[in-house]
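so i finally got all the pieces together for this one. its three components total, 1026 residues if u count the protein bits. some of the lines might not be protein, just check the labels. i wanna see the whole assembly predicted at once instead of chain by chain like last time, that was a mess tbh
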Amino acid sequence: MADPRFYSVAPPRSLRDLAAIAGATISDEAAADELVRDVAPLQDAGPEDISFFDGKKAYRDAFLESRAGACVVAPGDSADSPAGMILLAVADPHLGYARIAQAFYPSLDDPPTAQVEAVDPSAVLGAGVEVAPGAVIGPGAEIGAGSRIGANAVIGPGVCIGEGGFIGPLASVRYCLAGDRVRIAAGARIGEDGFGFALGAEGHVKVPQLGRVIIGNGVEIGANTTIDRGAGPDTVIGDGVIIDNLVQIAHNVRVGRNSIIVAQVGISGSTTIGDNVVIGGQAGIAGHLVLGDGVRIAAQSGVMTDIPAGATFGGSPALPQRDWFRQVAMLRRLTKKNLDDR
Amino acid sequence: MADPRFYSVAPPRSLRDLAAIAGATISDEAAADELVRDVAPLQDAGPEDISFFDGKKAYRDAFLESRAGACVVAPGDSADSPAGMILLAVADPHLGYARIAQAFYPSLDDPPTAQVEAVDPSAVLGAGVEVAPGAVIGPGAEIGAGSRIGANAVIGPGVCIGEGGFIGPLASVRYCLAGDRVRIAAGARIGEDGFGFALGAEGHVKVPQLGRVIIGNGVEIGANTTIDRGAGPDTVIGDGVIIDNLVQIAHNVRVGRNSIIVAQVGISGSTTIGDNVVIGGQAGIAGHLVLGDGVRIAAQSGVMTDIPAGATFGGSPALPQRDWFRQVAMLRRLTKKNLDDR
Amino acid sequence: MADPRFYSVAPPRSLRDLAAIAGATISDEAAADELVRDVAPLQDAGPEDISFFDGKKAYRDAFLESRAGACVVAPGDSADSPAGMILLAVADPHLGYARIAQAFYPSLDDPPTAQVEAVDPSAVLGAGVEVAPGAVIGPGAEIGAGSRIGANAVIGPGVCIGEGGFIGPLASVRYCLAGDRVRIAAGARIGEDGFGFALGAEGHVKVPQLGRVIIGNGVEIGANTTIDRGAGPDTVIGDGVIIDNLVQIAHNVRVGRNSIIVAQVGISGSTTIGDNVVIGGQAGIAGHLVLGDGVRIAAQSGVMTDIPAGATFGGSPALPQRDWFRQVAMLRRLTKKNLDDR
């Protein structure tokens, strides 16, 4: 279930309704009047939730083990599915799911209540919290003891920030639960919409982004860095992680403890970064990858594959460091030779 | 003519004055007392406007077809010019134009009127518009029905935003006309100055940026993305375009309908992107290029050439996808061979 | 000494205390009761300051010429040191220094006084200064005549901005001394914490960032660009420098006069850029390098080495332009040949 501090779900709907919304066929007509209460990712869904499976190998296990009561799938994926799961088959399951999720969450940008005062009266501020001029704190937000909120910063409805934190001037923190001693520099954007779209007949269809950003203890986040909230799972930043300026972290990314991410790095959606990883400046990491503990990535690399724990990669597309060094050296020799031949 | 909602032009000036300001020679001394009312790009200029032509081949047709009454040119470009156009010849036409444009627009940053209240009384808010705490809306701005303005966001003087839009917290929208259902995430910067400078004897001379940002219907713009306003022409984002976080779009860029631009992409000035184009993360596109409809650009590519419709390019400098794949594969083989030789 | 307009130093401490804090051994026990008043970089430190030397060759001269009364060093660097300098030897001098600097500056984010009003009464505004709605100006800040502060911008405590400047909406300027005619676009972040950490037994230990950002006359800084303040030395942007959008400039970087830095460039810590340098979009410059006057760097380059004055470099890793062009051309030929061989 999407966190009710951030999202208000619409009333339950029948599978018949949802199939109509998604343009899908129900696998078991007898179940058409059963009610669905919410959308949820495969691994979190329960018997009253509907999820989706796009057929990608990486998610087949999660599909087969899912406890979702219903699931949007492609027609070809109907054969092998968990017992008792009702299937809604449609050519583009991601698009079908987008339409269903929009029905459950029709007005994502509405805060739970309209906010009139800069610091909403329902916000809870711990002992010694300092709020600089112009800062806006939304309904139901909780700021732990000793934390300071910078000038003109914006803390969204329901956000929780632990003790001893510092939110820089003009930063925004929305849809987020943060631990203690978190430092977020000026202009960082925590919890904006992930980049989630399905391709519909008349253009792009937005997939409601229903997750949060979970930030561990002692995390530092640089100026103007952007960390999108999860699409349904959460985006997770582990304890002690240090993130430099102008970094982009997409929805559903998980970063392990004490990892270091240098300026202008981009990490695409649903990628998992291990503990104690170091990613050099301007490197890009593709989506749905796994980088093991202690991995090191050279600056400006383009990572397109999983990387085992402890490995160092460089280049674009990125290779193991020795191969990358060899490639660079060989290119220089060839260029030289080519010149000598003239 | 620069949009009077955003720019106030100074009184008309004689060609004699303008030639003196630019350090230029008038092609027809008899015309020296004629008055010029404004600066304008070649394609928009009329008989009372002055434009400039820097000699670049890409703009020669626009020069030859221009209806501008006067034009700053290099001495060598005086021979072949439209009949009746008065020429102001100077060694660096861009610099000469910069000085003239500064004379017509001496105080670019002044809003039309000084603003005292956060929501200026002259702003027009449609039915159901919600303005969160701390948001600033400038004189003469118009916000369409049902649009919501986030906390501490800034809407500049004269800006028009259509119906059902959402401007995120701490975003700024200036010198911009936006359609319906536009979503702009937190911290995006719409309508800042383009990067326009001419090289003068005593350092860089700023070229006044007199265009706007035109945003179509249903456009989504990510967190901390920057879209500069046009230099004279406009910067144009077509209907249904989706732009991710931390993207840079320079002045005069045109992006066609339903194109998708992934995080940290940079598009240089005056480049035209077709419809349904997809540009992968961290790619860079040089200036003054044309990418046709349906083009796809791999992540981290560096595009230095025009690309025909439907083509897929990758690498830096970017090549057609097959050549790029071949190059990557060949490099790996050579590196391997090189190693085996040892 | 850190600038008292921005930083409040704790009372003096004995070398014995500091050695305990750093886990270090004092070279001269007889000096253990001597008081140290502050931390300082090697080149600025005086007899009452403590500095550190991490053994890097690039800083050995600064170490040998330093007038610091005490210095944290690695045990192996104790032999060759300036006469009279007390050494605190510890395995990781950077970490030891971080702990000592934290002791002298325990609460970095505290402004000198708590600010209640948006424009603090102790701020000094010159003639004709305009402050737009929502802007916050901290205690002791000074804004020169004719400068304008945009809506919801934040000027930190003690900041000085010269005459005729323009600070865009939602920009933040902290720990900064800026000259005349400075233009800072919306959302730029001037003076945030540099990325300075030492590796401790229980995670990263923050190195207090005690420098400033010094901005010359006539500088332009683009939207959402980030310029970190120095770690102890300052970050310095020379007269007439033009910086585009989304650029990252790390702590201690020095940029010479009239240089141009295009969008999305990243410059790592302690690198020095000469006068009249041009750096193309998305290029990355590693740390601790020197780029001479008039250097030109192609877009998307990755600079890993010093570059002599007047040279043009391109590629990643960056090479002299001719070598880079040759490499690109050779790769294309080889790919072609490779294809013909099939």
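The interface with chain C takes residues 130, 132-134, 148, 150-152, 166, 168-170, 183, 185-187, 218, 220, 222-224, 239-240, 242, 244-246, 258, 260, 262-264, 281-282, 299-300, 316, 328, 331-332, 334-335, 338-339 of chain A (CB under 8 Å).
The mean pLDDT of chain A is 93.
anyway lmk what u think
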